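Data card: per-record layout.
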Amino acid sequence: MTPVAADKSLLPVYRIRPLPLASVSQFRNSFTYRFNDGVRFELPIFAWYIEGGAQKVLVDTGANAYHMKKYRNFEAMDINTFDDALQKVGLRASDIDMVIQTHLMLDHCANTHLCTKARVVVQQDELEFALAPHPILAATYIRELFMGLNFQLVKGHTEILPGIELIPVPGHSPGCQAVSINTEKGKAVISGMCTIKDNFEPPAGVREVMPVIPPGIHLDAVEAFNSALKIKGMADIIIPCHEPSLVNVDSIP
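The structure for this 253-residue chain is written out next.
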């Protein structure tokens, strides 16, 4: 029997609220593989609130300047504390029902332990890798930040809530996942991978040979390229996880 496709008109319609937490001085080629060597920029770190459903859902919980200085010795400045960022959308950490972890690198999960009532949704492959990371990426995984969380493990493409899908996008890390969200303007996809706008809209001179640029931080560059291309092909709105132009954006769409 052929399954009947869900009526998209019946799905909840959400909007995404960017919650910028910190700004970190970085080299741009860490995010655009083999391009922009030596160019410094201010990299924002975000959490994302999915507004409009019965459950209060965050995608990632980001990190603050304290975390980036303590664990990576990066130059960083706070934009908002985690509590202040949540207050701007009328929430407290204890209100959060679910945290979707795109992956478990430190800049995506440093505040998750503050969401004491939340289920923490992560790909099984990601948690397994995070517990014994390859040396290439080991410095970005800090066990004390994610041990003891109330994990809900998923494996592969999953509709975690009506209108919210988890899309495997390996390459940046083995279990990295993008988050597809139904909005009034179509499918918005939070990239999961540590990317900026240039990854999906390469500048002139690059786009003629590469439709996307993989993230500079990765375990497998070819796999990361293919994952970026998958996101670009499926999304009506692409939300790169570290895009500087989104710091002052209140809502997407």
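Known properties of this structure: The chain has a mean pLDDT of 96. The chain has one domain: 11-246.

See the next section for split statistics.
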